[in-house]
Amino acid sequence: MTRNDARLSSLYELGAQPKRAFLSIEFPCTTNFAKEFVSLALWMMILCSLAWAADGQKQLAAATQVVQTMASSNQVPSSLLKKARCIAVIPKLTKAGFIIGGEHGNGIVSCRTSSGWSAPAFISMSGGSVGLQAGGEHQDILLLMNSKGEQELKNGHWELGGEAVAAGPSGGTGTEADTGWKAPVLSYSHSSGAFAGADVGGSKIGADLDTIHKLYGQSATFQAVLSGQVQPPDSAKQFLMELDKAAGR
Prior knowledge:
By secondary structure, the chain is an alpha+beta fold. It is built from seven helices and ten strands. The chain has one domain (62-247).
């Protein structure tokens, strides 16, 4: 081999070497990046799942507190509580922004079954204008439903028109004749220590399927939960016990 041939061979090897090195580095980096991305995505899914579970736990705890406060206040007639087919609690309904208007909140609902109150189903409530009590930025909402209200609720999405809901009476009154209980829903709001009838006309109630699926599994439906086909979790036992005390089985 001549000196020029040797020099050309050396230059070729030097020029080729970076290409081989570039290829050998590029693929492992891409593979590592993909692994890190997949790992991060899995962690995010786990964290989201835990967050959904935590949200469900918080809603149950808050709703339990509302029922306890309601029972001790004696401001919602016991005769109506005992006749209610379903009871919904939306803790801390918050007033939306000035542009959007209305209110929004998440809560839970349970209906009577042959064996007692059903496992709680998760719902959202939005729209309308409840009218916050003086000095309040948020308030708790309590909805009592008769058999008509129960049927509408189990459809999974319900807009509370003017004839569907009436402000519930407080104090010692509470017969069907003098309370307008013919309306599917009687509504109450709680703020600053008092329960009072509330106008929630125009509000929309919808099933919170994301939270329902996180707590009961992907196969659980809103209707199945409210019909007693799903076992209540341990975290719901306190809420159901308070419903038993306040409204009977």
